[in-house]
């Protein structure tokens, strides 16, 4: 840590010192907290040879989610850090009218139907469902392990307004058409095998005037426009070792997490969403929030 110029070392006293400006990246809600990244590197290192095999002419197309042991738990811990004290008080208010529609506890008239698409362990659902008991939350993921974890956690919290289910986003149930007021896809579109198909299904299942929040990585589609982004090497690395291979494994698009805001907006337009806004996510610099609407 000293030779990497992260920790200062006093040669005479043989003491170590972490200067305040470097502490910020290790603190919760510092906006640019990277304290969770070393564990992510360990997870990605575990699949490095599987990814390398994909480059062989006769190698596999990609790497299955099941090869990333511990990824869902790691993601959920990071989401807890990012979202507790942030989601309800800072993120939700960036969406006009949403907090009122989700409803306050005493206002029994309020409450809406929400879908957390590609939920993993469903941290936003667990947080929102506790704060907004008049709304109902359906959270879905292809992977049964995180869905079971989230359902058990919801029971432990005594929530009665959540449903967690294993579900492929590319073919949502036929009777979900026009049924959700709000859909949230947090970091769940770029590594889809068929992101266009998923966006079409999200559109179909939203009510007219319903809102869609796609939270995804901050980046530009054109490589040259990411050169000044200090996080870009880490993001492209994570994309190579996780986001692209999990999509390619299903013969998918392999967009990667650096698909960029320009392509993201054009795909939302293609799926017929309107009023598309590209917003910052309060206190989470790594993400962008694509807020849009079904007409
Ligand atoms: C990067 S994780 C994000 C999870 C969670 N939203 C979060 O922010 O922690 C992407 C999730 O999408 C899920 N997923 C991928 N393809 C899917 C599909 N076709 N249908 C449903 N879920 C899918 C994966 O299983 C994974 O849990």
TrEMBL record:
CDD domains: AdoMet_MTases. Pfam families: Methyltransf_31 (PF13847). Gene3D superfamilies: Vaccinia Virus protein VP39. InterPro entries: Methyltranfer_dom (IPR025714), SAM-binding_MTase (IPR053173), SAM-dependent_MTases_sf (IPR029063). Residues 109-229 form the Methyltransferase domain. This is Sterol 24-C-methyltransferase-like isoform X1.
